[in-house]
Structures
1.
Amino acid sequence: MTYKDFNEFCQSLPATAYVVQWGGSHVWKVGGKVFAIGGWEKQGEPAFTFKTSAVNFNILKDEAGYRPAPYMASRGMQWIQKFKSAKVDDDLKYYIKESHRIVSLGLSKKMQKELGLNG
């Protein structure tokens, strides 16, 4: 997945907002809360960071091409970074969509309703 593909996919999710921050990273938010980040690569390949469930965190942290997200996971947050080409972009799209869902569920019920989420 390229950053262009990443941005197009994140934009297709409901009630999202885009900002460039943290050293030029592509940051996607729902209700003002971050759900996906494109950037922070160290290997010369695009890197993508997203929030996960506890189960997915425990699975992905040991998968080839994934790792606990720098800075976030070290602070006890369940965020994963895909940092090497993995088998299929569909997997990454699933995890980004799931991150969007997890983060949106953490918003107040009022905000969820205003944004038309989780109805």
2.
Amino acid sequence: MRQMINSLHMTRILALCLGLSFLGAGLGQAHAESRFQVLVCYPGGPVKAKTAAPAMDKMLRVLEKLGGWPAKSFSHAFTSKAGECRKLLADKKPTFAITSLGLFLEHRESNHLIPLANPRMNGRGEDVYRILVKKGGPKDLAGLKGKTLSGTLLGEPEFLRRVVFAGKLKPSEHFKLKPSKRALRSLRKLARGKLDAVMVNQLQYSGIKQLPFAADLDVVFTSQAMPLQGLVADSQKTTKGERAKLAGALVKMCSHADGKQMCELFCIDAFVAVDPKIYEPVDKLWRENK
């Protein structure tokens, strides 16, 4: 059951496994002398700083060791609010960031963001969004018009419109949106008939087969595959050498004695250097569907 719940919160897992502690405050409030600032954005998520911070601080120290940096070279901040993330990106211009794919596409140019390393989870480096209904319910998106849609992925409707739905519908107009911080809770409500549909990502979907009501759910929409988002850097505030060093440390992390334990705990197979070409399809959708 613990493994299933973890897989139903994979966006949370992604943020945790990148080894960054969460403070819920502005950048620079802690370790003001640090050379690098890291912002972690998890729109709509249930992460609590007091439970995540100790393990993530340990992981941050592992990255510093693997990269050959002095201790406390990195300061950090976390927010679960998309609006606050946008403000921090605009005002603080963090050196490195972990954001959702939507926030990355939105701020790629303004913050000069370059992808460094992305995770592989359950053997996959791709994400896919799906919409589930109770068996016997609507058969397609047209049948869901005016119906309730829940899930943890609804906090960025513009990303959903441009990329997930490829510009074919506006979520806030097509559905009655009911964002949730816990996918499992939404899925239970769906199974009880209290919701019309739930949107899940690939790793949330992979955990559904373990639920007792899995056979009662049908998929009525599947997005195209997209990158499973990882760590990015501001190319104007970092050197090529610094970016390569951090990416290299992240790639080695799951083989390190301490790093391996954290990777296994959060279902990370490995981190891999990013091939920029994997962003071309989603970048095209983002630009063409303004």
3.
Amino acid sequence: MEPFRLMKMGMIEMICGPMFSGKTEELIRRLRRAKIARQRVIVFKPSLDNRYDEIQIVSHSAQRIPSIPVEDPAMMEHCLKQLAFPVEVIGIDEAQFFDNSLIPLVETWANSGIRVVVAGLDQDYLGQPFGPIPHLLAIADMVTKQYAVCVLCGAPATKSQRVLANHQKTQSGEKVLVGAHDAYEARCRGCHVCGVDKAVTVSRENDTTAV
């Protein structure tokens, strides 16, 4: 297939991994490069994720990019229909918080020639597949697995450990709990506790390694 056709093809890029592994930072990096290339970019995030900013996507390392907060994938489609010009790149952060209606939309966009870059947790705090991410990984054209650093032993971390640093938030055990250093730690498989770890031994107040 000739290079011009390759450039015009849409694709699905997945960035996944645990908390503090740099998923959002990598998403921002790719979207910024697309903007430098003068491509038309639109970015979405779930409206419930307002940890650092109501509007912008912000990484744990304070990288940020403007976005549109939406309640569900249908709102993404509505926003796209309101644009005067078609977009070339769609970015989606924290995709695990959306339902499975995101899956056919992402595939439709890619099939229409749009580059779709999606970031999200591939596992919840129990180590189970999270939301639409597993299906999106299966249909993606490119998958990047990010790793964090286990705060207990320093090994590559693939799990997000829910901890009781913020007792009122974490004692209920609900699956969806938006939080950062107050509620989660990065852990390797060996140090991960399947559930909420009540024996929190690591302070994150001065942690500068998480991304």
4.
Amino acid sequence: MSAPEPHTRDNAIRGRLNAFFLRLIEPLMEKLFGDDKRRLFADLEGDVVEIGPGTGANLPYYPAGVNLIGIEPSLHMQNALREKAEKMGVPLEVRGLKGEAIDLPDASADAVVATLLLCSVDDPIQVVSEAMRILRPGGKYVFIEHVAAPKGSVLHLWQTLFFRPHHWLFEGCHTNRKTWEVLEAAGFEVLDYEHHTKWSIMFYVAPMIVGHATKPR
């Protein structure tokens, strides 16, 4: 099946800037999330869909043999993603779609992966609903997300102060979404996650949730 025409959600300047930035910070992403990804991805198999793979930061962590589909609306991300997958020898199909409308059949994926995704989508509830739809019964949803700091904390204040510039620069990324509430309301049979603090130069997005969920059988 041929992939649909790409959907362009970014403008030329920010799209190229973000693609460059994501490639630049891959060593930092490994330091922050490498152990989490190795643990969460270790038993993935079969048909795996990654929503928002960006420039391919997760590609090194997938076990051999998975059939990987990337749902990536940015043309600038797609170019870098395909190039990295080719260099690594990872079979990958890229579909230029938004996570709110995935053109895959119901119950067609063994796993869905979403890392640092729900902060920037237009409708996180719909994206998780699509993930649930395409998962097979018993399928796994794997996630790492930066989230809102506790209200009244210093970090929450910084998230509020940085919201507008961060939202513009990173094409809609929210500094302070309560993403765990979206996941808790999604109807997963099992939802297992932990709150972590991952300090980096973008300290205001240090609060994270890391975990996985299972679709009811």
